[in-house]
Every structure is written in C-alpha cells, then in structure tokens.
Design brief:
- It holds the Pfam family HSP20.
- Keywords: Stress response.
- Belongs to the small heat shock protein (HSP20) family.
- β1 and β2 form a beta hairpin.
- The longest helix is centred in the C-terminal third of the chain and has 18 residues.
- Helix content is 22%, strand content 29%.
- The protein has 160 residues and is of the alpha+beta class.
- The strands form two sheets. Strands 1-2-7-6 form a four-stranded antiparallel beta sheet, with no helix packed on it. It has a three-stranded antiparallel beta sheet with strand order 3-4-5, with no helix packed on it.
Length: 160
C-alpha cells in the first residue's frame, strides 16, 4: 500500500507554486505502469541536463522527439521487418513501440539529440529570459530623498 502525502501545508506557505505542487500530487497518485525503455536523467551543469534512453533494437528513423510546451515526448515505432527465412528461437531484444513523456520545468529547451549504439541522448538547457532573472531592487526612504533635495536647493541659491 502506498502512503499518500498531504501537500496542504505547502499550499498555505507558498505563492505561485500551484502547478508544481499539483504535479507532485498527481505523480504520487498515478502508479508507473511501464518501465520500458530504461532511461537516466543526468544533471551536467547548473542549468544543463541530459536524458539517456537505452533503445536497443530501434534505429534512428524509428524515433521521434517532440516538445509540446512543458512536455517532452519521445516516441519509438519500429518499421515492419520484411519477411525473412530466419526463424527466431529466442527474441530478447525488445523492439516494441513506446511513448515516454517527461514533464519539463519552465524555460527548458531541448538543445540536442544524439543517437549512437542503441543509446538516445537528449540534451536540455534551462534558458531563463533576462526579464525573469533575479534583479536587485534599490531601497529608498524619506531621509534619502530629503538629503538628495538639499544639495540641489543650495546649488540654486549659490547660482542666484
């Protein structure tokens, strides 16, 4: 039996994290059904990530990668094999169709996809727009404005 987590305290003490908290709540309720193909998620830098998927039995032409808003979808559909005289005694390399979805954070972009030796590597980068990066806000007070005004008034008296 899976224990449920109550996210109510987080909703009370956070602002603007509704989407993330709802995603956590949903993820805790939905059991993972399919674990194929196996994959790794690697953090390669401050804002750089890589997803490595083992897709043995599939070719580069059998794979499709699409990014729809904040979702990365990797699909594999093997082209039908022509009939051959070969008879398989054991078929252990999975070549079945799959669709794997990854929820991406805001401002994540796929920068590269590389396929080699049955391993698909997808490189992602978080690119936060300049307008959304943290900035320092100057703090002023009534005494600061008064001090700035005094030299200007004295300068005007001296000129007269």
């Amino acid at each position: 039996m899976r224990a449920t987590v109550d996210f109510a305290p987080l909703f009370r003490s956070s602002v603007g994290f509704d989407r993330m908290l709802n995603a956590l709540d949903l993820a805790s309720r939905i059991p993972t059904v399919d674990n194929w193909p196996p994959y790794d998620i690697v953090k390669t830098g401050e804002d750089d990530y890589r997803i490595d998927m083992a897709v043995a039995g599939l070719a580069e032409n059998d794979l499709t990668i699409t990014q729809e808003r904040n979702t990365l979808v990797v699909t594999g559909r093997k082209a039908p094999e022509p009939q051959s005289a070969a008879e398989y005694l054991h078929r252990g390399i999975a070549g079945r169709e799959f669709e794997r979805r990854f929820d991406l954070a805001e401002h994540m972009k796929v920068t590269n996809a590389h396929f080699e030796n049955g391993l698909l590597s997808i490189t992602l980068k978080r690119e936060i727009p300049e307008a959304m990066k943290p900035r320092r806000i100057a703090i002023t007070s009534s005494t600061t404005r008064a001090e700035e005004a005094v030299p200007q008034i004295e300068a005007r008296k001296e000129a007269a």
